[in-house]
Amino acid sequence: MELSGTMGDLRDHLRRGWAQRVVSTGRVAGSAATLAARQLAGLGDREGVLGERMARELDQMKGVAMKVGQILSYLDGVLPDETHQALRALQCGAEPAAYEVIAGVVEQAFGSPPEKVFERFDRAPIAAASIGQVHRGRHDGREVAVKVQYPGAHDTMVADVGRLRGLSRLASLGCAVDGPAVVAELAARFAQECDYALEAKHQAAFQRAFASEPEIMVAEVIPDRSTETVLTSEFCEGQGFYEFADGADPQQRDRAGLLLVRFALRSLFGAGMINADPHPGNYLFSDAGAVVFLDFGCVRRFDAAFIDAERKLARAVVDGRREVFREVVEATGMVADGRRFDFDLHWDMFCHQYEPFATPRFRFTSNFVRRVFEFARPSNTNLRRLAFPPQWIWMQRLLWGLYAVLAHLQAEGRFAEELRVALEQPFAVD
Question: What is the mean pLDDT of residues 362-375?
């Protein structure tokens, strides 16, 4: 097999050359601008045409661009419903790499082609994501899922983040946010996503953390078939998110929502780590009622001090203790200048954020998720006075991504009890 040519071709395809990526970015920006104009005119994206155009371009660009599209695909209220629908294709990808290229990566990793490394290796992928794609296979008598990284994926991610560095300095002007520090945080996480050996360790850590929870499933890693560019796990059966959401009854959706919340909260407060990529493509729902959690590339670990500060903040808000709010917020490092900070407005924001955990029973809706964007308007004077510690990015991505998923499920339940149990967990780093 001629590897150098095909792998070089994919690198060119992923990067598309600097000029071509700029063209693609321009097309996406043009579609976004047209969409914004149609929104103002009350026209939206009725046929999803603009969304489909954006999805094609972002899918071809892969890397950070595709990740942004994945996030937008499930944050209801950011874009018209038709656009969200079109962008959903990015959650599993629509434009895979050629089999010859993927086979080349496997051969570089193990010294033999897939047909010799595995008892069976299906040529057609079952998913194609931002930095790699997944093929089904068999190893040692077990059905497995093999995630193979695109050649040049790391370079593409580094280049995309590099272009954000200059913008981050401009974005920091006139506010307290350390833009370069935020981009450095993003760069660190994206670099980790390109290290499948590290992802395998993260996945194993989550599996150990939830070993006693039969309804929360994390696939077992197959170490002897995993490297920095290939990650092999046991294959798990289950329905995809939208298939489950459309076909499940309210009780099944409520139970699934409770498990999603349990996984997020106990990961954070008990294990000091979160899987910070909660998009719908990363879940499967088994016939037995269990939720399977997939893709542990974007994992953020926190130290005990950070978790302790977040525990105190959460307790203060859900218990309605406004008198200690300033103290606990300042302890998180989010407030740059307490003299000009509007703590009442910030209290209102956190009361909304923790509303699902401050009432005995709560039902997630799209309107609840949309209301958060009201706090992101320029009228919120605190936006220029937030220090925004970089690690906080991932908590917010997890929380609001999770809320968007739960709203699509229309999940209802006793989420306050889940938070109470999570807050009482001892901090135990794996």
Answer: 87
Dist. CA 67–CA 360, nearest whole Å:
35
CA distance 298 to 328: 28
**How far apart (Å, rounded) are the C-alpha atoms in residues 74 and 84?**
6
How sure is the predictor about 158, in pLDDT bands with cuts at 50, 70 and 90? low
Q: Encoding tokens for residue 39? A: 């929104």
Determine, yes or no, domain membership for 373.
Answer: no
Q: What is the token pair recorded at 52?
A: 């489909």
How many structural domains comprise the chain?
A: 2
Quote the pLDDT of residue 170: 42
Q: For residue 371, what pLDDT is reported?
A: 84
- Among positive and negative, which fits the CA dihedral 202, 292, 420, 347? positive
Condensed to tens digits (0 to 9), the pLDDT of residues 75-104 reads 454 455 665 566 555 555 556 889 999 999
**CA separation for the pair 126, 143 (Å, rounded):** 13
Q: Which of 75, 91, 107 is the last residue of a domain?
A: 91
Range of the domain at 184: 153-191
d(CA 134, CA 230): 10
Tell me which of 91, 118, 143 is where a domain ends.
91
Q: Which residue has the tokens 């499920």?
A: 409
As a whole number of angstroms, the distance between CA 79 and CA 36 comes to: 9
pLDDT in tens, 304-354: 999 999 999 999 999 999 999 999 999 998 888 888 899 999 999 999 999
The CA distance from 68 to 15, in Å, is 17
**What pLDDT score was predicted for residue 53?**
58
| Tens-digit pLDDT profile for residues 262-273 | 999 999 999 999
Instruction: Tell me which H or E stretch contains 68.
Output: helix 63-74
pTM for the model stands at 0.77
Name the nearest CA neighbour of 114 among 135, 132, 89, 90: 135
Does residue 97 fall inside a structural domain?
A: no
Handedness of CA 11, 12, 18, 24 (dihedral sign): negative
Q: Which residues contact 193 (CB under 8 A, 6 or more apart)?
A: 131, 157, 199, 297, 298
114 vs 135: CA distance, rounded Å: 11
Contacts of 198-201 with CB under 8 Å at 24 or more apart are 199/231, 199/296, 199/297, 199/299, 200/226, 200/231
Q: How confident is the model at residue 164 (pLDDT cuts 50, 70, 90)?
A: low
What stretches of 142-184 adopt beta strand conformation (E)?
142-149
Q: What is the dihedral of CA 165, 171, 173, 178, to 10 degrees?
A: -60
